[in-house]
Specification:
By secondary structure, the protein is an alpha/beta fold. The protein is built from 47 helices and 32 strands. The protein is about 50% helix and about 15% strand. Helix 21 packs across helix 22 and helix 27 runs antiparallel to helix 28.
Length: about 1300
């Protein structure tokens, strides 16, 4: 209800403004206070009485006052940057008399923009209270409503709306949401691919061969979308893509690979590896020089050092280094053995030398080919990338046109269209301002950018184009730049941070540092400073965290003597004591340092360990509440802690937040997690979506049974079994309609009614009709978290409404839309059911917590490994280096990492680790009073002490932990343990404690607190004793029931040739598989060209088995070109090439029988292949076959099995006949070729059936080619 009073004295503009804001924001106008000649309205929920004027620090005051140049404010966490920005704007209005609409303020979020407006309005009202007759202040209230305080997207949209005539766009174009755009992208891609398939576009088909497998084009679609999305962060996407692809046209431009952009990255990385190796060897050598008996060991280390120094000094000459590494392979410098020497340094030195040699393997992997070979590999990919570029640009154009047809735009469009309005290129290709940009430049007296560290290059161009060149005020903290996945460029901030001066001359750009923290207690600041002084540097983290970057105490907190503010690092040791490899504490162990290549392997999280950690956190929260832990409240002063004072921060909440929520709820603690990623997997949404699916198409067993088993159908398991027994062979719906019971008739009638309703109702109305007719919404409201479940169903209703309003129609398309969201690993946002003041514990990601603060923060899951999965993509992307592709030759079936990709991976890993460091900084700066850190780790005590050895092995030349060592570890917990060991207990004990908890003891303690459940089995026995004879008979029938299809329990629904081979050969399942009818060659594997062969082993001394030798022969035959002549020397060159690309090892290369391969080139088969019209190698296939073809089973149980495999070779000979060939390497005696035929003919028949089905023609001939006998053996059809 709104109450307005007659206020003659009140300025009409203020009254109109207040009516407008009151209507829009539903603010109750409550109270009038009279000041002199007019009245001020105090707005409920908005007005905050300020008791005293704010006292600014010198640095804050400088940020408020300085002008006449561009200013970068490096504002540390909790330093009051928003308050400073508001005060600066107020000063501009009051002192400089600049109208608020002449200032452009760009915020990161809409919420931040709204808060900024609110703060400015409050400040203006306060100034009016002090000076009520100031007409300028009254004017600012009116202007505030149309001022440019907004996000960059809102500003861009405003530019487009006001200047739409400058570009080809409608004035009323609608901004579509991300899900609508996802559908549209898929539609455009599908249409484009269909056209190209029909036209037989050669470039397109080449890309299909290169980037897809098993004839599925989804991989190529995903690649196109990935690169298209990535390049939108560039001001000129098409130019960027063209430029980066042209980088691969390097033939004749370089002779030394070290001079290429990729070579420079690799050389820097190699230099770091060698430098660390040299540092480690010199450090241990210097210790050894005091002991004469270690002279021979010192000499060995000195020889190593000479080699490493030679390489390090010659890194600018790529080929010289490659040749030196090749020479080192033949050089023998073994560690001396002398049992008479008992000095412990001997063994320590050996361990360190071994670790250096292990690291040196990475150097060999990087410098594994000459400049000419590396350049040729990169140049080879130029043609493929050019084709990929063309299809991406074609998609971009078609997608743009589709959006124009629908009169919509996305967020990327807003930025690029605004940029198109504001800048253009002159004849020389330089970017210049348009006339529109010049008008904006003239309008804005100042441009203030909040969270500048999260800007990208497009936004930089836009805001620079409307500035005067000396009126940009930027506020941010590069240590909190955590949006790399959104293409944020912290380098923009860093460049200015390094360039701008603290004490500049007049007119020079200025840097101001705000280093006082007004948020946290001293204990929180101390641990933050200690952690980042040790780990954050220009190399990792992009900034040198030193005393100049320290968070200095600015907050004044009431001290509570009995209160413990020390940070606790709680480590749950998840080791299984029965399998503890460290039981013998006296055993001599070498230092454990994780291998860098292991960092990409995600740690397998055991569910029970996640649950244990969640229970531990829940118990910690309960202890805080029960102990009446005291916190300081600005309004109430000292008070007992409440649930809403506690936040649990996780690196990622996907799949984990719900576990925490469940465990915390079990202790009666109110908790909320914003796990929006789980929306589509929630039971209520899954049930309704299943209902929609069967209304659209009832011939879907799983959705049908899901609905029938749910409260909508309310069928029991026994009822479902009875329905199935009515028809065992048809789908479940056909069995259902053959069942005549009242319950089934009622259910079928419901489906028919809903299907009829769908014909004439709008999708959203129809979904609401489903809720009403089924009563499902009422049911879920009574379930746990009923309010959230009801809200989720309402959200689905709203989503359907938005879907149809976006010009997409129909139930089928809506279901398809949801499926595509799931397929792309996206999700819809779940409903929000709590407000800011709800008294609940909050679970959120660290990213979500940015900008927030809580009295107590529990940072959990710090033992979880960093996610480095992006490094495994087929093409890596970098804003500076461009593309990093795999080398893929689809014709020769060769694939490996190009040096371009290796260079991008090196850079991407460094950037990812730097970002993880900044994410940790954000987490540690959220708590106001108390920080608790919780993580899981195996063998925790041992790993903590091992880190002390690691610090000795990797010395640092400054006070920081060695950056190379930091990159080797994979969790926040590892970093914290390194700091703990580096600083020592004496220094850390007042700042943080490390507590290790044994898993077994924790579980025992938790079990004591849990209520033991009644034994269900005993309950059944007791009930059985009370049953009558008929009931007992029925129970016995249930208990003695046997599955009628036991015969096929071990028969898979999908298998491969390899799996069948494993079943045949595995002794432990011999009895189970005795009815398998045919064998498979031991060395045959389902191979894909996307991986190195499985036999590749890092142990060069490992013996090569016969099976591996067979696979090696297969590999060589696969790589040989039948149109060429092969001598023994040329075959050796082929093998050397495979070795150089590290596809095979040196030992494996030596085991290949060249004479057998040469014999193959003289065979009848080879001669036929030379004249063949078409040759196809290593072709994957899938085929459905009857189970009885491989298993001895009865006819009634004879079901289909999906078999996958790879055909070695088929070709069309000169007479047009189709020939199928399978290579075999088995030992077989001359004259006993028929044994090979009998062993493998069934396998060949399987290949024959698959090939005939795929090509729709008969196979004319089948051969087995024995590489052992060098003989072709005909298989009779």
């Amino acid at each position: 209800m709104y109450i307005f009073f007659s206020v003659p004295e009140l300025h009409i503009e203020i009254l109109l403004f207040l009516i407008y804001t009151g209507t829009r924001n539903k603010i109750q106008l409550q109270k009038f206070e009279k000041f002199r000649s007019f009245q001020i309205i105090a707005i409920e929920g908005k007005w905050k009485k300020i008791m005293a004027s704010v006292k600014w620090t010198d640095e804050q005051q400088a940020a408020i006052d300085k002008k006449g140049s561009n200013i970068l404010v490096a504002a540390a966490a909790g330093s009051g940057k928003t308050a400073v920005l508001v005060e600066r704007i107020i000063k501009k209005i009051i002192v400089d008399r600049v109208d608020i609409d002449k200032i452009l303020v760009v915020t990161f979020t809409n919420a931040a923009a709204a808060e900024m407006r609110e703060r400015i309005l409050e400040a203006i009202y306060k100034k009016i209270e002090e000076n009520p007759e100031d007409a300028n202040l009254q004017k600012q209230i009116i202007l505030l409503n149309k001022s440019s305080i907004c996000t960059i997207d809102s500003f861009c949209l405003d530019v487009i709306r006001n200047n739409f005539y400058e570009i080809d766009i409608s004035a009323n174009a609608r901004v579509a949401d991300s899900t609508e755009m996802l559908l549209l992208k898929q539609e455009v891609l599908d249409d484009m691919f269909e056209d190209k398939y029909i036209s037989g576009d050669k470039d397109f088909l080449d890309l299909i061969d290169t980037y897809t497998k098993y004839n599925k084009d989804e991989d190529l679609k995903e690649l196109i979308l990935k690169i298209y999305t990535y390049i939108q962060a560039s001001p000129f996407p098409e130019e960027w893509l063209n430029e980066k692809v042209e980088m691969f046209d390097i033939e004749g431009k370089y002779t030394n690979f070290s001079d290429t952009p990729w070579g420079k990255i690799i050389i820097k990385n190699v230099s770091d590896i060698l430098g660390n190796g040299i540092l480690k060897l010199e450090s241990i050598r210097n210790k050894m020089t005091r002991f004469p008996e270690l002279e021979k060991f010192i000499n060995t280390i000195n020889i190593d050092l000479v080699d490493y120094y030679f390489l390090k000094d010659n890194l600018n000459d790529w080929d010289k280094c490659v040749n030196a590494i090749v020479a080192l392979k033949d050089k023998r410098n073994n560690w001396p053995t002398d049992k008479k020497v008992t000095n412990d340094l001997k063994d320590e030195a050996k361990n360190i030398r071994d670790s250096v040699k292990e690291e040196f393997k990475k150097v060999k992997e990087l410098l594994n080919c000459t400049s000419d070979e590396a350049i040729a590999d990169i140049n080879f990919m130029y043609n493929i990338l050019n084709k990929l570029k063309n299809i991406i640009l074609e998609f971009s154009e078609k997608f743009y046109q589709k959006k124009r047809e629908k009169n919509i735009m996305d967020f990327n469009d807003m930025e690029h269209l605004a940029l198109k309005i504001l800048v253009k290129k002159d004849e020389a290709g330089n970017v210049v301002k348009t006339e529109v940009a010049k008008k904006y430049e003239e309008k804005f007296e100042e441009i203030a950018i909040d969270e500048y560290q999260d800007s990208n290059l497009v936004q930089e161009y836009i805001l620079t184009s409307v500035s005067k060149g000396n009126n940009v005020f930027m506020v941010g903290d590069v240590k909190q730049s955590i949006y790399k996945f959104r293409q944020a460029r912290p380098q923009l901030f860093i460049e200015k941070y390094n360039k701008y001066k603290l004490e500049p001359e007049a007119g020079e750009d200025r840097k101001i540092q705000l280093f006082k923290n007004f948020r946290s207690r001293e204990n929180v600041l101390n641990i933050t400073n200690m952690v980042f002084e040790d780990i954050m540097s220009k190399e990792l983290g992009d900034i040198d965290y030193n005393t100049n970057e320290y968070l200095n105490l600015g907050a004044s907190y009431l001290e509570i003597p009995e209160q413990d503010y020390t940070t606790d690092i709680e480590i749950i040791d998840t080791s299984d004591e029965d399998n503890d490899i460290w039981k013998d504490e006296n055993s001599e162990q070498s230092v454990y340092i994780p291998l860098e290549e292991d960092s990409n392997d995600a740690e397998q999280e055991r569910v029970e360990d996640v649950v244990l950690e969640a229970r531990f956190v829940a118990k910690k929260i309960k202890e805080l509440i029960d102990s009446k832990y005291q916190v300081i409240d600005k309004k109430e002063g000292k008070r007992n802690i409440r649930y809403k004072d506690i936040a649990i921060l996780l690196r990622s909440i996907t799949g984990i937040a719900n576990v925490y929520e469940k465990e915390i709820s079990m202790l009666g603690i109110p908790v909320y997690s914003d796990s929006s990623g789980e929306y589509l997997q929630s039971i209520e949404i899954e049930t309704i979506m299943s209902l929609l699916r069967i209304i659209n198409n009832p011939m879907q067993d799983i959705p049908l049974v899901t609905v029938m088993r749910s409260p909508i159908g309310n069928f029991t398991d026994n009822e479902l079994i009875e329905i199935r027994l009515n028809d065992r062979n048809s789908n479940f719906y056909e069995a259902l309609i053959k069942t005549d019971t009242p319950k089934v008739r009622k259910f079928l009638q419901l489906l028919e009614e809903l299907r009829n309703d769908e014909q004439y109702m709008a999708l959203d109305e129809w979904i609401w009709n489903i809720y009403t007719k089924t009563g499902y919404m009422n049911y879920v409201s009574l379930m746990p978290n009923g309010n959230l479940r009801v809200s989720n169903l309402k959200m689905l209703f709203e989503r359907a409404k938005q879907y149809e309003s976006a010009s997409f129609k129909g139930l089928f398309n809506f279901i398809n839309f949801i499926d595509k969201i799931k397929f792309n690993s996206e999700d819809l946002t779940s409903a929000k059911i709590i407000g800011e003041n709800e008294d609940v514990v909050r679970i959120m990601s660290i990213h979500k917590s940015k900008g927030l603060e809580f009295p107590v923060v529990i940072l959990a899951g710090v033992g979880k490994q960093f996610n480095m999965q992006d490094l495994n993509e087929k093409i890596l992307l970098d804003q500076d280096l461009g593309l990093g592709p795999q080398y893929i030759d689809s014709e020769r079936h060769i694939e490996f990492k190009t040096l371009a990709k290796k260079a991008l991976a090196i850079k991407a890993k460094r950037e990812a680790v730097s970002e993880e460091m900044r994410v940790l900084y954000v987490a540690l700066t959220r708590p106001k009073e108390k920080l608790i850190i919780v993580g899981r780790q195996k063998d925790a005590n041992r790993k903590i002490t091992e880190k002390q050895k690691a610090l000795e092995v990797y010395p640092s030349d400054d006070s920081k932990i060695n950056a190379y060592l930091l990159q080797k570890y994979k969790t926040y917990l590892d970093w914290l343990e390194l700091i703990y060991e580096k600083e020592g207990v004496a220094k850390t004990e007042k700042i943080f404690r490390v507590n290790v908890h044994n898993k077994k003891e924790l579980l025992e303690n938790l079990k004591k607190e849990e209520k033991v459940e009644e034994d269900i089995y005993q309950k059944i026995i007791e009930n059985t004793k009370k049953a009558n004879k008929e009931e007992k008979q029925k129970i016995l029938e249930y208990l003695n029931w046997k599955y009628p299809h036991e015969e096929i329990e071990g028969v898979p629904t999908k298998t491969s040739v390899t799996k069948i081979k494993e079943m045949v050969n595995a002794e432990q399942v011999e009895e189970q598989t005795k009815n398998v009818k045919f064998a498979v060659e031991e060395t045959k594997e389902v191979r894909t060209i996307t991986q190195k062969p499985k036999f590749v082993n890092n142990n060069e001394n490992a013996k090569i088995s016969n099976a591996q030798k067979g696979t090696l022969m297969h590999l060589c035959v696969q790589k040989m070109n039948e149109k060429e002549e092969y001598t023994a020397e040329k075959i050796q060159e082929l093998i050397d090439g495979l070795k150089q690309k590290e596809i095979i090892s040196e030992a494996e290369a030596e085991s290949i029988n060249i004479s057998k391969l040469q014999g193959y080139t003289k065979s009848d088969l080879w001669q036929e292949l030379k004249d063949a019209k078409e040759i196809h190698k290593e072709k994957a296939f899938y085929i459905n076959v009857k189970a009885s073809r491989m298993y001895e089973i009865s006819k009634e149980n004879d079901e289909n099995i999906l078999v996958q495999g790879i055909i070695d070779l088929y070709y069309i000979d000169k007479d047009g006949k189709l020939v199928l060939v399978d290579y075999k390497t088995d030992y077989v005696e001359a004259g006993k070729e028929n044994e090979l035929v009998e062993k493998y003919k069934e396998q060949l028949y399987l290949y024959k059936d698959a090939l005939e089905k795929a090509l729709n023609r008969k196979v004319d001939r089948m051969w087995i080619y024995s590489l052992y006998l060098n003989e072709s053996i005909v298989i009779e059809k």
